[in-house]
Every structure is written in C-alpha cells, then in structure tokens.
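User: Hello! I'm new to structural biology and keep hearing that structure can be predicted from sequence alone. Could you demonstrate with Exodeoxyribonuclease 7 small subunit? Please show me the input and the output so I can see what each looks like.

Assistant: Of course. The first part below is the input, the amino acid sequence of Exodeoxyribonuclease 7 small subunit. The second part is the output, the predicted structure written as tokens.
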Amino acid sequence: MVKRKDDSRAGWSYEEKVREIEAIIARIEAGELDLEQVFEQFCTAVESLRQCESFLQQRQQQVNLLIETLTDD
C-alpha cells in the first residue's frame, strides 16, 4: 500500500488494527479477561473500528474521485 505524506496517521496500519481487534475479540470470547478488562478492551476495539471505518471512507472517496475523473475524459 502506498503511504502518503499527508496521511495524518503516520505509522498507522489498517491491517494491524484489524489484527488487534481480532485479538481483543479472541481474548474476550476465551474468557481470559475479568469484567473491567473486557470493558476496557471493548472500548479499545470500538475506537479501532472507528479509525478503520474512517480510513475506508477516505479511501472510498479517493476511489470515487478517480473513477469520476476517468469517466469525465
């Protein structure tokens, strides 16, 4: 994947966030965490999901713009 200088998430990786979310879900499902840890990890996962959603929305806008420029020619 190409990284851009204007990306405000330097060092941020969609794939890594997905792995982190999957690991949190696995720990919760396995019963490895006490209730307070479940809540904290759930909050972390929700924030990561929001970041992923924002990333995907931005990329979708870029794709739509590229497609629009192709169809305008």
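User: So the tokens describe the shape?

Assistant: Right, they're a compact way of writing down the 3D structure. Reading them back into a model, for example: DSSP finds two helices and no strands in the chain.
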